[in-house]
Design brief:
about 35% helix; alpha+beta; two-stranded antiparallel ribbon; about 325 residues; globular
Length: about 325
């Protein structure tokens, strides 16, 4: 496992080609179990983009990721990061790296944004845009599987751009490599960026199997985080989500994990400051239901948020 972490990074030359675009790296934006994300500049247009380098252990794995990336390039939604190009490069120790060129979001991610205040109108806009993006993915038979604040990016105008919905596809490609057991990669999938398990639905931790409704649970966690700004601190970094305290245990754990491993009746608590949004609280509770069959679809969440936003705007106009 240490070998994988060491080889996730790639040393690029000052300038290099991705498809037909000549790029120069400006800075490193972040890294995870399977890759590193850079801010790059197109030397012809001077536009900025994000470039993700994905570790692949052999040519077969690289081909799998390329094939999936080409499929993902067909996904088009205003609140989903667009894949603009692909490429590949040789990394250290002979490993291959898939390159994904995407939109650059200067607003950072939700874990960076939520510590600062935002208006109710902005909160509802974010919620609605996330739900709309997830509903679109589900309509295309794509399940994100890794919804969390680090993967919700913001543009310069603070519009949502859902990113990194290819992690599960990368994971599947890697686990298909001959000679590598799936359980070798499971810790990276379950603990990517430290906090992934805090946002997973209960059924993901069980042998029951899961569907698109797992994304709805994770969406509920994100909605709760926006409304309540609940968080835990790990390694000096704040992770926003929905957490519960366990008697006789230090700290707090993610709601979904607590439901599956300790008690399915665990629930979240809303602060008095959010009581104004009673219908929003009810919607979040529905999304965070232990039983996936009792959760709404992402499309239903989106439609409910549209109605909540409309009522909120009408009430503001009458004040």
């Amino acid at each position: 496992m240490a070998m994988m972490q060491q080889t996730a990074a790639t040393t690029f030359p000052t300038t290099f080609q991705c498809g037909n675009i000549l790029l120069r790296i400006q800075e490193t934006l972040g890294s995870g179990a399977f890759g590193v994300v850079y801010k790059v500049q197109d030397l012809a247009t001077f536009n900025f983009y994000a470039l993700k380098s994905i570790l692949c252990l052999n040519a077969s794995a690289l081909q799998n990721v390329v094939r999936e990336a080409e499929l993902l390039k067909q996904i088009s939604h205003p609140n989903i990061i667009a894949i603009l190009g692909t490429g590949q490069v040789n990394g250290t120790q002979g490993y291959l790296h898939m390159l994904l060129l995407t939109e650059y979001c200067p607003g950072g991610n939700f874990n960076q944004r939520l510590p600062s205040p935002s208006t109710n109108q902005m909160n509802l806009k974010w919620m609605k845009q996330m739900a709309h993006a997830i509903a679109y993915l589900h309509s295309r038979n794509v399940v994100h599987r890794d919804l969390k604040p680090d993967n919700v990016l913001l543009t310069a105008t603070e519009d949502v751009k859902l990113g990194d919905f290819g992690l599960a596809r990368e994971y599947i490609a890697l686990t298909q490599i001959q000679g590598y057991a799936q359980n070798i990669f499971a810790p990276y999938y379950m603990q990517s960026e430290v906090g992934t398990k805090y946002y997973m639905a209960p059924e993901v931790f069980s042998i029951r199997g899961y569907s698109a409704k797992a994304d709805v649970f994770s969406l509920g966690v994100l909605l709760y985080a926006i409304l309540e700004r609940d968080h835990v601190i790990i390694g000096g970094k704040a992770y926003y989500g929905a957490f519960v305290a366990i008697p006789n245990l230090p700290g707090r754990i993610g709601l979904g994990f607590a439901m599956e491993t300790i008690n399915p009746c665990f629930n979240i608590v809303f602060s008095s400051s959010s009581n104004y949004f009673g219908s929003l609280q009810m919607l979040i509770r529905q999304a965070l239901n232990y039983d996936p069959h009792n959760r709404p679809t992402a499309q239903q969440v989106y439609q409910s948020l549209v109605a909540i936003e409309q009522r909120f705007n009408e009430n503001c106009n009458t004040l």
